[in-house]
Each structure stands twice: as C-alpha cells, then as structure tokens.
Amino acid sequence: MLTINRLSLQLPLYVSWWKREWATCLNEFSLTFCSGEVHGVVGASGAGKSLLAYAIMGLLPTAARLNGQLAYQGKPLDEARQRQLRGRELALIPQSLNALDPLARTKRQVAWAAQRAGQSSRHALQSAQRALDHYQLDARAQQAYAHELSGGMARRVLTAMAHVSQARLVIADEPTVGLDPLQRQRVLDALRGLADQGKTVILITHDLRHALPIADRVTIMRDGQQVETASARAFHGSGASLASAYARALWLALPDNGFLSHAVSQAQPTEQEITVA
Amino acid sequence: MALGMQLIPRIARRLSRLTLVLLCVALVSFGLMMASPVDPVDAYLGPQMAQVSPEQRALIAERWGFDAPPAVQFGHWLRQLVSGDLGWSHVYNQPVSEVIGQRFQRSIMLLGSAWLLAALLGFSLGVAAGAKEGSTLDNLISTYAYITASTPAFWLAIVAVLLFSVTLGWAPTCCAGPTGVLNQDVTLASRLHHLLLPVITLALLGIANITLHTRARMLELMRSEVATHAFAQGASRFDIAWRHGLRHASLPAITLAFASLGELFGGSILIEQVFAYPGLGQATVAAGLRSDIPLLLGIALFTALFVSVGNMIADSLYSAIDPRMTSGGL
Amino acid sequence: MNSGQPPSYPPPNIYSQPRLRAALSLFVTTLLVMGLIASQWLLGDAPQQMQFDARLTPPSVDHWLGTDALGRELWARTLAGLALSFWVGCLAALLSTLIALSLAALATLSSRLDTLVSLLIDTLLSVPHLILLILIAFALGGGTQAVIIAVAVTHWPSLARVLRAELWQLRQAPYVRISRALGKSRWFVLHGHLLPHLLPHCLVGALLLFPHAILHEAALTFLGFGLSPSQPAIGVLLADAMRYLSGGYWWLGVFPGLGLLLMVLGFERLSNHLRRAL
Asked: Mind telling me which Pfam families this protein's record contains (chain C) (predicted)?
C-alpha cells in the first residue's frame, strides 16, 4: 500500500552562530506497509520515528533535505500528491495533545477535520457526532474545550479526527504516552479496530510492549535506520528468531523478560555514534 | 448561578481599584500643579497682571484659597470634585466640566472612528501577514507596520496636510468646519470632510501596533502543533487562518485595542494640534501653555478615567471570553 | 494566500539569523550614531548661522535641504536636532531604566512595598503618556532638564512591570530557593542569581524605551512644553514649519521629521533584533 524506498532525511543543525551542519535523521530507510495491518514502528527517542511520519505526510520543515522514493498505491507520492491526499487518504494522529485547538469545542474540531476531508458542513457535523459516539465521548465531552478533557479523552478525540477523514493510512504517533493502562488499552483497541476495517495503521511508539499486543508486524528503528522488521509473533521466548542483536536486546529488556537491560546498554549507541554527516 | 456569584465581587474589586487609581491620579496631578513655578494668581489674571497691586493679589489669593497649605487646597479641590464641580477654566471662561463635555463630543468622533478603523484594518492586515511568514504580502505589511510604528504622529499629520490639503487641495487644512460659519450651521457633509484627514492620519498610526501584535499571534499559531495538525488534515493556509487564526488572534487584538486608548488619545492631541481641530487635545495644549490649572487637572482626571475603563475592559475581556479562563482550567 | 505549503517548523534558521541581524544592525546603528556625534564637531555653529540672501530657498545643490525663514541651513539644523534628540533620549532612557530597576527591586522586598509600587505603576499607566508629560513639564517649568525628567518619569512603568514579574518569578525559581536555603546572603542571591537574569531585560528594555523617549520628547517640544524654541530640536523645527505650511514650503516640514523617523526606525529595529537574539 505504501512503499518507502531508500528514504534519507537530513536536517540543518546550527553548531555555532554561522556554522551549519546536516544531521542525518533517516538513513536509507526502506519499508512496505500493507493494508489491513497494524505496523508497529519502535525505537528509542531520537531514532527518527516521528520524522518518518512527517516525511510520509509531507509535513517536514522546508529546510529539510529529503532523498529516496515514496509510493502510495503504486504511484509515486510526491509533494503535490501528498498535499492532495493529506486528510483524505493519509491521516496523522499527532503525538502531542496540544494539537487540539484550545479555543474550539471538541465536536466542532472533529467536524472541521471531516470538512477538510471533503464533506459538506452538515454532513461533517453528523459524521463528527458519529465518530465521537463511536469513541465513547459523551455529549459533555463533545461540547468541551481541550483543557477540560482528560488525557485519554483528548487522545480519543484525536483518533476520532483521523477516523472521520476516512483515511486509508493512519499514522498514530506515540498514542499511548501518559495514559493509564485502561485508557491505553482503549486507544490501542481503537487502532486495531481501524486496521480491521481494512485500513493501514502505522503505530509509532518507543515502548515495544504497547505495540506487540495489536501489531501484525513490528519494525525496529535505530539512528534513522531500519534494524529489523519482523512479525509480532517473533517476539517471544528468548527472541531467538529475531535477526538483529538490538531487536533482541529491546525484547529482553522488557520487565516480563527479566529486565536484561545490560543487553540493551551494550547495543545502545554511544554519543559519538549519533550520526552527524 | 455560580457565574453571577463570581462576577459581582470581581466587578466590585475592579471598581474599587479604579477609584483608588483615580484618587492617586488626582493626588499626583495636584501635586505636580502645586510644584509648578507658575503662580496661580498670575495665571488667573493673565495680561492684567501688571495692573494689580500686591494687596489686591493677596486678596485674590485668599479668595481662591491659593494661600492655604497644599494639603488643605487638595482637600478643598477634592470636595468640590465629589460634588461635581471641576472648577472654572479661565482660558475658555467656562466651567471646566462644560469645556471638557463640549470638546470631548468633537474628539470622540475623531477618536472613535480612528479607533475602529485602526482595529479593523490592523487586525485584517495582521492576519494576512501572519498567515504566511516571509511571503511578499507579509514583507510588505510588516515593513509598513515597522515604519509607521516609528513615525512621529505630528510629522505624519504635517505631511498629510502638505500633500492632501496644500498641494492637492482635497481636504481642508484646519478646524472642524469652514471658517466664518457658525457651529450649528455646519453641514454634516462638511463636518465629515473636515474629519476625514485627521481620522485617517490617526488610524494609520494606530494600525501598526495592532498589526504587529496580531501578526505575532498568527506566527505563533502557524508554528504550533495546532497548525501542523490542521495541515495534516489537509487544511490550506487560508483554512487555518480562517478557522483557527481568527479565534486565536481576535481576542488579543481586541484587548490591545482597548488597552491602547491612552496612546490613541496622545496621538489625538498632536493631530488636533496640527489640524487645528477644536477637540479635547487642543484644549489640553491650550490649558498647559496658558497655565489653566483647573482645566489641566480636569482633563488629566477625565482621560485617566477614559484610559482606566479601557484597561479594565481589556482585562475583563480575557476572563470573560477565553474558555481557558472561564472554566478555571489551566 | 498560498495553500498547502508545509509549515516551516522548526524555523530553519532559528539560531543563526537573529544574532547575525542583531550584530549587523548594532554595527550600522553605532556607525550612524558616531557619524551623528562627529558631525556636531564639524558643524560648529552652522545650525544657527543666518544667510539673509537665502531665506526659504528650496533644496538645491547649494542648500541641500533648503533653508528656513531666517536663511539657516535645514540640513545642519536637522543634524543638530537629531543629535539633541539622541542625547535627550539616551539620558531619559537610562534614567527610566534605573527607576524601573530600583522600584522593581524595591517591590520584591516586602508585599506592602509591592502593593505601593504596583499602585504607582497603575496610576502612571492610566494617564495617557502625553498628558502626563505635559503635566510634569508644566510642573518643572519646561527646558531640557524638565523634558529629560518628564520622559524618564513617564516611561518606566511598563518596564518596571516586566522586571517586577520577572523578579517574582525568579524568587520562586528552585535554584534561587535552594541558594537561600543554603544560607547565601541576600546580596549574593541578588548579585549572583538575579542580576545576571535581569540585565539582558534591562538592556533590551532601555533600548525599547529609547525610540519612545525620542518620539515623546519631539512631541512635547512640538507642542511647546519641551526644549526652548531657541534650540534646534526636531520638535522646534517642525513647530516652525507649521507656520509656513500653507505657503508651500514643504521642505521645512518634511526633512526634519524624516530624519527623526529614520533614527527611531533604526533603534526600533536594533532593539527588536537584540531582543530576539538575547
């Protein structure tokens, strides 16, 4: 459905007043996402997960240098096509809850998302209502402002906004941050539900535990590179079926596997290793 | 309702603060007048000063209470003030309250229309400029705003007179109506014609502030996660400026418009002076230059009231309109 | 409005450009100010020299910006006026910053003093600047000193408000509280923790005050409350020009104000760049 072929991304970095260097954030990244799957993208902070999402959506800063190809449904996904598909075929559930407009009521914001996907204003309000009902947000929450919502509710509102757009590719950027286990499960279930409708869900998270229960496949990222893509089933036991040491280390570092964190610290990059090209 | 319960003490608090501030203004301005080297008897007598003997001067001083200690004079003035008597203006030979009333009627036309024009135009320009940072439109508008923000008000008025009145002859050079015509005979069209240039000049200056402020708010919004999220939904810049921008920028703009009433009034003093527009600003200058102390004090108090109410509205607007304030969140 | 362009987030040159611009505008402004000061030596008494055979002549090769009703060169008078404005503005802004800083510091000492200072701030802010300027100039009887004091006394409240808020915030900052809990002296806290934070604010505040101070000085002088009419101040030049407006002597009104505008614009840009860079 979405193919990423040798995608490289560099961002300018000012090391002093005038001197500029290019930091490589994605390095020859290749991956294919299929429809109907939840694809977990897991990596440490700074591995380039969010930038990958922005690159797919075409929301990178103008100063970024991008190389490589993106293809959506067989056709190349360039800037013009991204602009055309954003909000209609491609949807992003942003990482931060600040993405909700603090000055507009919940339902209205969801209706805007629907309008941006091409619905008429009356139709948009109806689908906003339906989407919010679907995510168990009651009438009070629908008339609330962002600061009146709990973290879990706000997260579900963001999910509802991606839902109303009818997008076929949904990227969820760290949707589980700051949620208690019950809320987290609700959000993850919602994402699984989207995939079961035949959509593609890219679940970006730094916590392998959150991705594994609902993901079909998991890609481990490190320093902007793809370390391993494996079926979620490969993460079991001692992780013997995982090809790379880093993926195995991440798996073994989970509490259920006995906190074998020394394995990760060996596999973690040192400061010097962080690529500055 | 809980809202009403909250509202009444809040208003009471604001009103008592307002009274306190006005009392301080009265004290400060009265103190300044007392400190002035201008002899109030001389100021009262004006050119007849030379014809008056020292005994008569002493009599006058006693009659008006100029010989009493400052504190007593202040108490006396304050008592008069409370009973609604602002004193007698010797420049206009009228009670101060009448002078202020008449003059303010003329000034309010100038102030009000310039204020409205500046707020509306400034806001629209600010939104247009801030919607896309670095665009040609943005560069044009912000350059304009930066330049007018540094322009001396009276110089702009002088240039306007030179260009539109002297050279092109489109607008009259002075006053609120044609010279030689009685005030009540001036037609509305003529009144507006005389008002046009001062209003535009005053508004041009006020625009800069609101434009820059609104633009800054828009830039902030356009860099925020709200805008990124909207872009991710496929929104255009226009869509974001329309749906999110207006919400985010309008309240600060209105607040600033109310908070900048003092600046507007200062501008109107200068512009009335250049256009010889007989408003409150011109009366202020006349009172100052010809040592009309009661009038000066009256104007100081009146403008302080005017500006304080503006500030009060500005403060209250946020708590009344911004949803983040009303429900006690954040 | 162009649609659908991705936002430039983070701004591509968040570190380099503001500082570069600030350095550049600092350089240019310093150069201009030095030129302005140097010109006063070179000019001598040219601003006051009358040429009776060249009265009210329009700008030409001989008389660059034209001459006034007494045949005095307008360019020399404008330069002298700008230099005067500069000094008055400098002194007033400096004085104003000092008042703001000391009153803000005073306000942090006790809550009673704080209410007093904030009441004073509210009082001064509730009177329009120009009215207050007229009142103070009236009380002091006019003249250069009166203008400087009047401008200084009217302009400190907004800066004081910023500094006061900053100081209150700093006092609550964990590192200041720890420092006090460790038994450091008041002086040490003030000197070691508070001042380094406040100084950039003061510098930028003073620079932001400066253009306002110049504009208000000129306005006050223009209205007849400020510098004496015998001095070649910009306000005096423009008040003079008012008398010759209807005669079409446009250069008298245009050039002095343009000079003032350029100077104020220069400092306004400089302070804005500095604020962004610091």
From this structure: BPD_transp_1
The count of structural domains within chain A is: 1
pLDDT tens per residue, range C17-47? 667 778 888 888 899 889 998 888 888 788 8
Give which of A9, A17, A51 to mutate to test C binding, by max C Cβ within 10 Å. A17
Residues B100-158: tens digit of each pLDDT: 999 999 899 999 999 999 999 999 999 999 998 888 999 999 999 999 999 999 999 99
A63: domain CATH number is: 3.40.50.300
Total of domains in chain C: 1
Residue B218 and residue B241 in contact, taking contact as beta carbons nearer than 8 Å: yes
Alpha-carbon span A253 to C92, nearest angstrom:
65
Residue owning tokens 């104000």: C257
Contact (Cβ atoms closer than 8 angstroms) between residue B36 and residue B312: no
CB pairs under 8 A between A and B: 74
Beta strand pairing call for B88-89 and A169-173: unpaired
Residues 6+ apart with CB under 8 A from B298: B86, B87, B89, B96, B97, B99, B100
Alpha helices in chain C (DSSP H): 16-43, 74-109, 111-126, 129-140, 144-172, 174-181, 186-188, 195-223, 234-243, 250-277
Query: Using the beta-carbon criterion (under 8 Å), do A12 and C12 form an inter-chain contact?
Result: yes
In a domain, A63, yes or no: yes
Asked if A81 is an interface residue toward chain B (Cβ–Cβ < 8 A), one would say no
Distance CA B206, CA C204 (A): 23
Q: Which of C2, C3, C13, C16 to mutate to test the interface with A (most CBs of A within 10 A)?
A: C16
Lowest-confidence region among B214-228, B313-327, C56-70:
B313-327
Binding partners of C (≥3 Cβ pairs within 8 A): A, B
For residues A70 and A60, the answer to whether their CB atoms sit within 8 Å is no
The pair of structure tokens assigned to B72 is 């007593």
Pick from C81, C83, C88: which is nearest to C38 by CA? C83
A144 neighbors A106 (Cβ within 8 angstroms): yes
Residue C86's domain is classified under what CATH number? 1.10.3720.10
Min Cα–Cα distance to chain C from A80, Å: 9
Chain C residue at shortest CA distance from A16? C16
Instruction: With respect to residue A153, please indicate whether it lies within any of the assigned structural domains.
Output: yes
Tell me the residue length of chain B: 330
Domain contains A103: yes
CATH 1.10.3720.10 is right for the domain spanning B97-326: yes
**How confident is the model at residue B38, as a pLDDT?**
78
The distance of B113 to chain C (nearest Cα, Å) reads: 19
Q: A161 near A191, Cβ under 8 Å?
A: no
Domain-located, residue A162 = yes
Q: With the CA atoms of B287, B289, B292 and B297 taken in that order, what torsion angle do they form, in degrees rounded to the nearest 10?
A: 60
Q: What are A176-182's contacts with CB under 8 Å, separation 24+?
A: A176/A205, A176/A207, A176/A210, A177/A95, A178/A151, A179/A151, A179/A152, A179/A155, A180/A152
Going by C-alpha positions, the residue among C246, A152, A154, A7 that lies closest to residue B158 is: C246
Nearest to C1 among B237, B263, B273 (CB): B237
